[in-house]
Structures are given as C-alpha cells and as structure tokens.
Amino acid sequence: MIILFDSTYFLTRSQDLSQYLISIYRDIHKFPELSLEEKRTSSKVAEELKKFGLKVRERVGGYGVIGHLKGGKEKPIIALRADMDALPIEEETGLPFSSQNPGVMHACGHDVHTTILLGAARILSEIKDHLPGSAEFIFQPAEETSSGAKAMISEGILDEVDEIYGFHNLPTLETGKIAIKYGAMMGSVDKIEFSVTGRGGHGAIPDMSIDPIVASSAIISGIQSIISREISPFEPAVITIGSINGGSSYNIIPSEVRIEGTVRTLDSEIRRKIEERLKELIGGIASSYRCLAMINYINMIPPLVNWDNNVDYLKRAASEILGEENCIEAKPILTGEDFTLYLEKKPGCFFWLGSKPTDGKEVSGLHSPKYRIDESCIPLGTAILTKLAYTRIGNIST
Ligand code: NI
User: 397 alpha carbon to ligand 1 midpoint, in Å?
Assistant: First the structure.
C-alpha cells in the first residue's frame, strides 16, 4: 500500500533529525576543503549515502558524488544538487567548531548545502517504498571555481534527469524565508585577460619609450563607457578590472602591463555585445597610444535563468513548509553560480534559503571571514527539498 505524506510529515521528520544534521554540518565546517580537493567531504557524503541504502557513484567530475534512490519505478528522476567546496579564507568567527584547516573556511555555506542534501537523502530513503519514481542527489565539487558542474555534466549525469533543483543559503535573508524569482536571477560570469605592450625605457625620457601604463589607464577608464553609454540603464551589467600588473620601479617605463577583469550581466545578448565592444575598445585605445593589446576573453558561465513552471513548484512546496508570506521575490544579483549549467540542459530552478543568524551580532555576508548562519535553517531547507522532490516524483508521468 502506498502511503501519502504531507508537508507536516516532512517538517516534523526534518526537525526530528536536527541533532544529526547539525553534527554533520559542524563536522564538515571544521574540516573545510578547497575546490578540487574535497576528498574528506566527499568520502563522508558517500559513507552517509551508503548508510541510507542509496546507490552511490564517487569521483564524478573530480570529487563529485551521486546518490541514486530508486523508488517504485526508475522514472521520473528528480535531481537535487548541493556544492561541497570551501574558500581560501582564514576563519574569524570564534565558533567552537571553527575550521581546523589554516587558511581555509566554509565561508559560503556549502557545508550547509551538503548537510541539507544529506538530510533530504535520508528522509526520502526512509519512504522509498512509497515513491513512484526516483531521486538523484548530486554533491558537486568546485563550485567556487565554476568548474564542478561542467565536469559532472560532461560525465553524462543529467542524461536521465527530468528536473533539477538547487539552492544557496543567504545570511542576509531571515531564517524561515526563501527568495526566488522567475527568469534571470543571477549573473553570467566571464573573464577578460589582456596585455598592453609598448616599449620600455627611462622614466625621465618618455619620448624614447612607448608607455603601456598610460595606455592601460586610458583603457581602464574608457571601457566603463560601454556600461554607461552603450547599455540601457535598465539593464544590469558590470565590468570590473580586478588586477593590474606592470612595472618594477618608480623610474622605469615597463614594456608590458597585464590586466584582468570580469564581466557580469543577466542577458545573453548584452553579454555578447559587451564582449565585442571590449575587444574593439581595448584594441582601439591601445593602438591610439601606439601600444599593442593582446586580448583573451573567456566565457565562463551564462546567466542563471529559472524555469517558470519549476519556480511555481518550488514556491508551492516552500509555502507549505514556511507559509506563503515567507516565500518572497528575490532581487537579481550579478554574482555567478554554476548551477546555471544544469538549468541550460534541464528544467528546474534555484532559490535562496534564509540563514540569517539570530544571535544579535552583526550579520556578515557570504565570503566574509566572520560569516555564520542560524543552524535552524538546516532542517527547514531539508523539509523544503524533501517536500518538493516528493511532490515532483509523484506528479510527472513518464
Ligand atoms: Ni556559494
């Protein structure tokens, strides 16, 4: 006999597991690992998934792990994804379970995501006899370097998946709330690297040189006019130069300057236009200063665009767990998230899970050395994901 489970069941069960979940979270938090080095974290994940009776694939696209939970039938397959990597930051939270790895910290909360997904795997595995289809739990490495999703997808992990859902905690959003929007929610991520070459010489005899530093400063100022003069003020777009390297002494004109930056936008057409205009302007300004520019423009990830129907499914599940008034409209942001690569291939959506601490201390954002969360967001996230996956497994006919 198939038993039906409601949102109260998922919320209660997630809360019952709080202690277990928080101990997993604190353990992962204590031993953070950088992108592409998630060895301990991934073996812990695999070990837990095996305890729940899931079929486990390890070393997928690096240290990626996939847990497959087969219900009554193989299809549909609803996938849920979390990321596992940490950041090169020295933790300053003073928490009793602070990082034991010097210079490495879970400052983006991927430990929270991994824990929540393990919770969902455990709860759904307990009711697998009552699931008409299957669930897939994707534990991704190397999100911070925007390489993990690509590596896992290239191993064919999405081929059989029908829908995919992902999320990120947000310490500036109250715990007990989620935020999501239809359409484009997060930015594309591109990288630009270029060199400006002139002719080196004595700083006191500029007429004998061709100064790439002066040319570079004109380029750096000039390219901002793409945003201010060529893109509609109603379209979000950013060009940031984050690194300039050139010269070795106050009195020498160097022969070359190397510059790196990033381009972000929510729209694919604008993304292409900025790339084209950057190349023209950098090349043109450099040559007008008698320098030569060599440009390497790298398309990393496209904008994250949610699928409308899947946003509806998520909102419905989250409303049942948190109350409709706690599911709010997300503001778009130009930070990137490689979850976008899954959404290019399969229907799904990505949402923000409130994780704001309630300890009265100042809130620190993602990637801050003082970043911390309210642990009660963990069972709430688990309840939302289980409710969502359970409902979708039952609602897709294949
Ligand atoms: Ni993150």
Answer: 33
CATH of the domain at 254: 3.30.70.360
For residue 391, report the distance from its CA to the centre of ligand 1, in Å. Answer: 27
CATH number of the domain bearing residue 42:
3.40.630.10
Tell me which residues have their CB within 5 A of the ion that is ligand 1: 108
Contact in structure between 68 and 75 (CB atoms under 8 Å): no
Same domain, 279 and 322: no
pLDDT value of residue 170: 97
**Per-residue confidence at 397, pLDDT binned at 50, 70, 90?**
low
Q: Distance between CA atoms of 269 and 230, rounded to whole angstroms?
A: 13
**How many CA atoms does the CB half-sphere of 348 hold within 13 Å?**
26
Distance 7 CA to ligand 1 centre (A): 27
**What residues make up the domain containing 46?**
7-186+303-393
Rounded to the nearest angstrom, the distance between the alpha carbon of 373 and the centre of ligand 1 is 13
Residues contacting 172, CB < 8 A, separation 6+: 356, 363, 365
> Residues 159, 249: one domain?
no
Structural domains of the chain, count: 2
pLDDT at 359: 85
User: Mean pLDDT for the chain?
Assistant: 97
Statement: residue 6 has pLDDT above 80 = yes
3-state SS, residue 202: strand
**pLDDT at residue number 387:** 97
pLDDT above 70: percentage of residues in the chain: 99
Report pTM: 0.92
Residue 359 Cα to ligand 1 midpoint, Å, equals 22
CA 167 to centroid of ligand 1, rounded, Å:
9
Among candidate residues 255, 284, 301, the one where a domain is terminated: 301
Q: How many residues does the chain have?
A: 398
